[in-house]
Amino acid sequence: MAAATAQSMGNLPSGAGICTSAPDMLFVPELIFGGLVWILVASTHVRPEIPQGWVMFVSVFCFVMTFIWLIIFACGGHKNKSGWVTADFAYHLTAAFFYFGASVPLASVTIAMKNTTIVPQVDQFRYYQIDIAAVVFSYITTLLYFVHCVLSAIRWKSF
């Protein structure tokens, strides 16, 4: 059983195989939850804008890069396996680090938003609820990228 797991972790999938291999099946949830963070943060009106801008940068950057990564793997564009395994690990480590670095300020701004009266009361509560959802999805996305990073590291080491 352990040998089968190690062998499946050592191969880079292509085509439909990305939907069944251990770390690569996380591409779709990363895209879904990352897209939700992007949409939710874009639909709020929060002061200060600086943390929200960082969250938007991270969510858009990771969404686009993950989509490109998914297309490369699906089309079989990875010929030099050792380089792609290393790049896969490095990208998901960077994405997990970026998302964690964006989730913490997003949560901080959301907590601070609870008691401020920058926008009218009805809109403030609605934006607060949207920001809470964005924080939850941001941490879920961080966890997905971290798990993908760990599984990519296992594949990298077994290669």
The domain count comes to: 1
Structural class: mainly alpha
Task: State the oligomer.
Answer: single chain
pLDDT < 50 runs, ≥5 residues: 1-9
Average pLDDT, rounded to a whole number, is 81
Number of strands: 0
As a whole number of angstroms, the C-alpha radius of gyration is: 18 Å
What general form does the structure show?
Answer: elongated
Distance between the termini: 18 Å
Name the helicity range: over 70%
Largest sheet: none
> Could you give the order of the helices and strands?
HHHHH
**% residues in beta strands:** under 5%
Query: What is the number of helices?
Result: 5
How are the elements arranged and paired?
Elements: H1 2-10, H2 27-42, H3 49-75, H4 81-113, H5 121-158
Helix pairs in contact: 1-5, 2-3, 2-5, 3-4, 4-5
Q: What does this 3D model show about the protein?
A:
This protein has five helices and no strands. With 159 residues, the chain is mainly alpha-helical. The chain has one domain. Helix 2 runs antiparallel to helix 5 and helix 4 packs antiparallel against helix 5. It is elongated, with a radius of gyration of 18 Å. 31% of the residues are buried. The N terminus is likely disordered.
Sum this structure up briefly.
The protein has 159 residues and is mainly α. Helices cover 77% and strands 0% of the residues.
